[in-house]
Amino acid sequence: xxKLAALLLSAFWFAAGASASAQDDEIIVTGSRISSxxxxxxxxxxxxxxxxxxxxxxxxxxxxxDAKVRKDEVFKALTALADRADRDQRIDLGIRRTFETDxxxxxxxxPFSRNSIRDEILSGGARVxxxxxxxxxxxPIDAGDTFDAAxxxxxxxxxxxxxxxxxxxxxxxxxxxxxxxxxxxxxxLLTMLAADNKAVRSVFGDEYKVSISGLEQPVRxxxxxxLDLAIYFPYLSSTAPN
Length: 242
Fold this sequence. Notes:
Blueprint: H1 12-16, E1 26-28, H2 35-38, E2 47-50, E3 53-62, H3 67-87, E4 92-101, E5 104-111, H4 115-121, E6 123-124, E7 131-140, H5 147-159, E8 167-180, H6 186-204, E9 208-213, E10 220-223, E11 228-232, E12 236-241
Antiparallel strand pairs: 1-8, 2-11, 3-7, 3-8, 4-5, 4-7, 6-7, 9-12, 10-11
């Protein structure tokens, strides 16, 4: 399985509005809720692009009576799932993390490792007599992809899972979208803003000046379609006589 990017995220991300390093992470844009983004209107200058991945939560569960048997069945099923992901160039596994501060919630995808199965992922299920592990399966979104095509790849991967005993592998909830290193688009946005500034000045003439504020803000996103995002700064632009 292709190595997922390592992620470092702290509560400071929310308090400060996102540091430069935090924007290197893989963010689940359809699951994260940041209150400061909700009032945004996507500005004229923005980038339209596809998300990097479609992601879906996968539940591996067993309700065998014996606790040790349950855990072994989940462990084996999850290991088999990881083995299949190793052989599939279109599928990766990861772990969903949720970070909360005040009314904000950020969801990211962290690396999956077999060592974390018993130590961290494996847990009790919805009932006392079940054991489960929850991971994320993800597939890259190509330029020609449709929502249904990407979802079909994930569904086929999950349905093809090798299970043993009373273990089951199912997808949980609807698929989401993620984007990697959203901060990388900062320079492109600044270039577009500078070009727009120049165009405005050419129309109004040298007697007017253009002021732009908000460039200290982190790059933000808005889901605009089944697989599409708008990437932008929440900038404000004004034109006034010199």
